[in-house]
Amino acid sequence: MTRVPTYATYMNLLNQSLSTKSQLNLYSYQATTGLKAPTYAGYGSQAGTIVSLESSISMTESYLENNKNLKIEMDAMNTAMETVTDAVNDLKSMMNSFSGMDLKKITPDYTGGEIKFTDNNDVYSNETITIDGVQYTFTDNNNGDNIDISNLTDAEGNPLNPGDEGYADAVMQALYDKVHAKNPDIIFNEDGALQMPLYTINGTSSVLNANGVETGEPHEMNSEQFQELKQLQQFAFTTMQLLADALNTQVNGKYVFGGGNNTEAPVSFPFSSLEEFQAYYDGINISYPSTPNANLANRFVDAEDTGKLTFTPTGDNTMTISAENAGGFFKDTLTANSETTGNLTFNKDKNSVRASEYGAFFAYKAGDTLVMEGTNNGLDGVYTVKSVSEDGKTIVFEDNQLSDKMVTDTATVDFAAGDDPVKFSSSFSIGSVVDLSGFTDKNLPTTVQVTGISDDGRTLTVTANRIPETQTEVEASSRWSLSTQSYYSGGNFTSERRISSDRTITLDVTGNNSAFEKLFRALGQMAQGNIVDTRNPAEEVDGLIDSEKTYDLLEEVSTLINDAVYNNGNTNGELNSNLYTIITKLSNNSVVLNNNDEALTLVQNNMQTSVDSMKTVDKTEATVKALEALNTLQASYSVMQSMMSVSLLNYLK
Questions:
Q1: For the residues 465-485, what does the mean pLDDT come to?
Q2: CB of 114 within 8 A of CB of 216?
């Protein structure tokens, strides 16, 4: 039986039904998901825009996620700095309270600033007295710093001999006449004693042990002063521990003050108690480093550098350490030639050396011990760097060290003329504390402090709390070494963290920044032992006893702490030279980060809104369209079924 509808009619009806079914599927998907299409192809010409916006949203989300971790780090750094600042401010308050006392009255001064001779016998000949660092000898001539007591007379000009009445007063007058020219502050008191307000000891004063020599009573701290000083030192030590802990702040497994080297604690503070700290830094033989370079010194030498070592005692607490090898305590740091430095110009008036190449001396900093060799103009020797210019071309030396050697206003080394290279070397910084390792069987000290170095680099002059009684030689061996260790073992890396596609934050706060170094140095000097010098100048003392030591130290420490907290912009080229700068920098970075994240969030929301407007539909409307499509499809199927069921027979009926 042949049906009436043709094949073409059937296919046309089928295609219309499939199209309606496709619309039904699309509207059903839209009603369920709220999206216009399941694939980007369904968005037509808007597909490219959508893909671009979604890529930007993903990148923004990545920045925001990374910035969350950065914010945690910066919040931790800010908290650490707030803790340090609070502790330092508390310490400053304690120091202000302590400095309100008469500090010159709490320092033991065994002369009391006075001395009086009462024995008329000859107890003075060949005895010495050291005043303000100058040692005078009572003898039979007036040469140099000798005091002639061989031709004494009374007020009427009559000769006085030992045993005569008034002989002791005449010896005192001779002392006055000799010393007053150098020290005009020395006067006679009403009771006939010499008043010497600048009386200091720097060496033996044997006359103080002679019969009939009276000195003033030593000043002593009362219990209140003693307790306040002890509390001040304990708080200084505790603040050092807190500072070390703050700089060792760790976030997400990273030390945030490590300067790029963030897997190991950047600050080492190995002392657990004030007593342990003061046993190491006794304040007399080993003082806490008073210069930045000594405080941050890292240097190591062993037998390969020095060969055999010879330890030679030179005083009660001083000795020399001599190396067998020439330049054993030197380390080559720069070979000056036409490429590295260009021509060198030495200037007598400026006490400086200048290179013609930019950045030639960037490796050096103030306080470094620098050695020049090969200048061929009499300027070879050991120098201390006072400053380095910002362009790295010029070094200025301390205390006219260069000027005193120069015989002309300028001297030059012209490498273009074929001169041999000039070697610049470094050595242990003056004031650096050196640990001696591996010498335990030689009765040598474990720690020494460098006070000088010879021009040939073979000999260190040091102080120590224990020195050998006789010269001691130590053969070269791999078992021993000499080293200095900075409190800081982190890096100096300055990084830029990208917080958006067009903005970065600079992170350059590290544990060895100038502000922290100053704080460690100030706190260490305050916490060290013997800031009140209790030695008796009547005994054999080789060293300086200063009745104003505590006062001067407190002034120095106070100035250093104030400089570390806020130095009014006097940075001297130092990076992060005070806490104010550091806190301001961290706070500004936090503000920039917060503002940046707010902007990123706003942009992200705007982009998401745009994407949503292109990708989404009204679900209610989509549901209505789906129902319409369903009804249309059902009608289409019904019509198609009816038409396809019509035959010629049915038609004829």
A1: 91
A2: yes
* DSSP for 53-65, written as a single string: HHHHHHHHHHHHH
DSSP labels for 47-104?
HHHHHHHHHHHHHHHHHHHHHHHHHHHHHHHHHHHHHHHHHHHHHHHHHHHHHTS-GG
Could you tell me whether strands 318-323 and 472-474 are parallel, antiparallel, or unpaired per DSSP bridges? unpaired
Q: Which long-range contacts (CB under 8 A, 24 or more apart) does 23-30 make?
A: 23/625, 23/629, 24/626, 24/629, 24/630, 24/633, 27/622, 27/623, 27/625, 27/626, 27/629, 28/626, 30/617, 30/619, 30/622, 30/625, 30/626
Q: Quick: pLDDT tens for 588-616.
A: 999 999 999 999 999 889 988 888 778 77
Which of 111, 503, 113, 517 has the alpha carbon at shortest distance from 296?
517
Task: Name the amino acid, one letter, at 120.
Answer: N
Q: Which helix (H) or strand (E) holds 232?
A: helix 223-247
Residues 6+ apart with CB under 8 A from 382: 369, 370, 371, 427, 453, 454, 455, 457
Residue 495 main-chain phi, psi, to 5 deg: -120, 155
The rounded distance, in Å, linking the Cα atoms of 308 and 161 is 57
Contact predicate 256/266, CB 8 Å: no
DSSP per-residue letters across 393-444: -EEEESTTTTGGG-SSSEEEE-GGGTPPPEEEEE-PPTT-EEEEES-GGGT-
DSSP lists the bridge partners of residue 138 as 147
- Angle among Cα 278, 281, 287 to the nearest 5 degrees reads 140
Q: Residue 267 corresponds to which tokens in the numbers above?
A: 């600050």
pLDDT score of 199: 47
Q: Which ranges of 512-647 would DSSP assign to H, the alpha helix?
A: 514-527, 549-565, 579-615, 619-644
Question: Angle at the Cα of 327 (from 324 to 330), degrees rounded to 5?
Answer: 125
pLDDT, one tens digit per residue, over 220-276 is 777 788 888 899 999 999 999 999 999 999 998 899 999 888 788 999 999 999 999
| Percent of the chain whose predicted confidence (pLDDT) is above 90 | 43
**Positions of E strands within 107-241:** 114-117, 128-131, 134-139, 146-148, 187-188, 194-195, 201-202, 213-215
The residue with tokens 């499939």 is: 18
User: Considering only CA atoms, which of 374, 307, 386 is closest in space to residue 335?
Assistant: 374
Of the listed ranges 24-28, 158-162, 224-228, the least confidently predicted one is 24-28
Q: Is the pTM of this model over 0.85?
A: no
**The tokens of 319 are what?**
């000795």
Cα 319 versus chain centre, distance: 30
- What is the DSSP annotation of 173-212? HHHHHHHHTT-TT-EE-TTSPEE-TT--EES--GGGGSTT
Q: Is the dihedral of CA 337, 341, 342, 347 positive or negative?
A: negative
